[in-house]
Specification:
EC 5.3.1.1, Triosephosphate isomerase, cytoplasm, TIM Barrel, glycolysis, about 40% helix, binds glyceraldehyde-3-phosphate, alpha/beta, Triosephosphate_isomerase, eight-stranded parallel beta barrel
Length: about 250
């Protein structure tokens, strides 16, 4: 690989799969998965399925992630799940700041930083999702948007905390649209982002996994993952089909 960074192929099931379908999908992923020194495999499932899927993943190398959680340890937060509750289910990763949460559920930079910080405190690796809208891209402010999303978290936890975290760059215009950023477009952003992070801390920037997300699928994964600064994928739609998801993993490993 050359970069020294292990790849991460992460599925984000979003709000999909009822119980039986979730178990079937997770079982297929386990069945088709093969250990690799080059790439980790992760599924981020709806919280209601965590207990079932935790059992299903036991004795496999597939890692378990959650899609969201509240930062408070406990309290009067009707409907919420705390990060510390996730720990009981051996959740290893937490998505924070996904654009769907930022846009539809009021996840401000401050809330995202709260969640990121709470994940780290509970020994869970946060995956900080960042991305620009089509309008922002057309205005030429992509990097400014991404920097400010990351800086809000750096201001809270410090750059060193990114040693135990990952970033997922997901251009909003490419999510669920079938329009993928070209490998060159994605690489350009990843490279610029890593370069900017290096101005904070070179070693952290060199070691940080920066994933690409946005209509990654079995057909385009190879060219995206061939880019030197793309260290994996955060995959929505294609992670709901075990065969497609595992094709992406096989490219990465
Ligand atoms: O978290 C995953 C991303 O939102 C990408 O979703 P997608 O692969 O369905 O475009």
């Amino acid at each position: 690989m050359g970069t020294g960074r292990k790849r991460l192929i992460a599925g984000n099931w979003k709000m999909n799969c009822q119980r039986a379908a979730a178990l079937e999908l997770a079982s297929s992923v386990v069945e088709l998965s093969q250990a690799s020194e080059n790439a980790d495999l992760l599924i981020c499932v709806p919280s209601i399925h965590l207990a079932d899927i935790e059992k299903c993943l036991q004795d496999s190398q597939v890692k378990l992630g959650a899609q969201d959680a509240h930062w408070a340890e406990s309290g009067a937060y009707t409907g919420e799940t705390s990060v510390s509750m996730l720990e009981d289910y051996r959740v290893q990763y937490l998505l924070v700041g996904h654009s769907e949460r930022r846009e539809m559920f009021g996840d401000s930079d401050e809330r995202v930083a709260n969640k990121f910080e709470a994940a780290l405190k509970n020994g869970i690796k946060p995956i900080l999702c960042i991305g620009e809208s089509l309008e922002q891209r057309e205005q030429g402010v992509t990097l400014d948007v991404l920097k400010s999303q990351v800086q809000a978290v750096i201001d809270r936890v410090g750059i060193k905390a990114f040693e135990n975290a990952a970033i997922a760059y997901e251009p909003i215009w490419a999510i669920g649209t079938g329009v993928t950023a070209t490998p060159e477009q994605a690489q350009e952003v990843h490279e610029q982002l890593r370069h900017w992070l290096a101005t904070h801390d070179q070693a952290i920037a060199d070691g940080l996994q920066i994933l690409y997300g946005g209509s990654m699928n079995a057909a385009n994964a190879e060219t995206l993952l061939a880019q030197p600064d793309i260290d994996g994928g955060l995959i929505g739609g294609a992670s709901l089909k075990a065969d497609d998801f595992m094709k992406i993993y096989s490219v990465a490993r």
